């Protein structure tokens, strides 16, 4: 006999996301000599971070994995806790319910449904941008405001949408003549949007975007991602 990877049988495509979560959890956290189908109900957060990182790199086919600050944001999201420190999260454990049963506060989806949407979007449309480290991605809207509020007019960064599954949004700072600043988030782009017009060309189109945070001129950062036909048309 040979042990295979876990198998889940589904009867409809809308069960696919839940099936992938079940396979991931079982494959990552079960013991070789366990009773069949018995898997831990809770696992250390550090083990979950390793699993999410391996899954992300394998799905997207990139060598650029998740960073410490990404794990911090993901911990805040899955535990619904914005007051704990990075060290606090490292000693916690996460449950199957938190991973793929409980709906995130104010949303209509679970943590895994959201993360899987990010995976799919990055794999299909954003692989080269992620691999070039042009997308921060896993960062909260509140922390974006903190980062950008002191930056020059037109400074921007890219983050994965909190409110939509499989969306990437551009946050940019607008500085008034009186020196005041406000951070705006452009409506998230889906995989369908980016299949019509690439992220690089959309950034190129938006004149209010000038420098990728912290201070890289956007043509320098994204120039290699512009469509050459459009570049030649100017």
Plain-language structure description:
By secondary structure, the chain is an alpha+beta fold. The chain has a single domain (13-225), classed as Recoverin, domain 1 (Orthogonal Bundle), CATH 1.10.238. The protein is globular, with a radius of gyration of 20 Å. The model is unreliable at 230-234 (pLDDT under 50). The protein has helices spanning 16-29, 45-60, 68-79, 86-90, 96-100, 111-131, 141-148, 191-196, 199-205, 218-222, 228-232, and strands spanning 42-44, 93-95, 155-160, 168-175, 181-185, 211-212, 216-217. The strands form two sheets. Strands 5-4-3-6-7 form a five-stranded mixed beta sheet. The longest helix has 21 residues, at 111-131.
CATH fold-type name: Recoverin, domain 1
Report the order of strands and helices: HEHHHEHHHEEEHHEEHH
Unreliable stretches (pLDDT < 50, length at least 5) are 230-234
Which structural category do the helix and sheet elements fall into?
A: alpha+beta
Radius of gyration, CA atoms, in whole angstroms: 20 Å
Number of helices: 11
- Identify the CATH homologous superfamily: EF-hand
Helical content (DSSP H or I, runs of 4+) = 40-55%
Query: Given the C-alpha coordinates, what overall shape results?
Result: globular
In the CATH hierarchy, the architecture is Orthogonal Bundle
Distance between the ends: 64 Å
Residues in β-strands, percent = 5-15%
CATH class: Mainly Alpha
Task: Tally the beta strands.
Answer: 7
| Average of pLDDT | 85
The strands making up the biggest β-sheet line up spatially as 5-4-3-6-7
Q: Quickly count the domains.
A: 1
């Amino acid at each position: 006999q040979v042990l295979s990877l876990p198998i889940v049988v589904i009867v409809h495509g809308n069960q696919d996301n839940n099936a992938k979560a079940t396979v991931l959890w079982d494959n990552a956290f079960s013991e070789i000599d366990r009773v069949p189908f018995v898997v831990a109900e809770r696992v250390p957060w550090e083990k979950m971070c390793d699993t999410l990182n391996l899954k992300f790199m394998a799905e997207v086919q990139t060598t650029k994995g998740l960073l410490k600050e990404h794990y911090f944001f993901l911990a805040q999201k899955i535990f619904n806790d914005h007051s704990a420190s990075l060290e606090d999260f490292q000693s916690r454990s996460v449950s199957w319910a938190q991973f793929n049963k409980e709906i995130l506060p104010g949303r209509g989806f679970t943590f895994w449904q959201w993360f899987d949407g990010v995976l799919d979007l990055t794999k299909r449309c954003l692989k080269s941008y992620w691999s070039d480290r042009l997308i921060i991605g896993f960062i909260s809207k509140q922390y974006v405001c903190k980062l950008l509020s002191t930056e020059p007019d037109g400074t921007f960064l890219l983050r994965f949408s909190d409110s939509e599954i499989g969306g990437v949004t551009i946050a940019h700072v607008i500085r008034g003549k009186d020196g005041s600043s406000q951070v705006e988030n452009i409506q998230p782009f889906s995989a369908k949007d980016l299949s019509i017009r690439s992220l690089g060309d959309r950034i190129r189109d938006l004149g209010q975007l000038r420098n990728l945070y912290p201070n890289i001129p956007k043509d320098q950062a994204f120039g290699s991602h512009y469509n050459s036909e459009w570049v030649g048309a100017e």
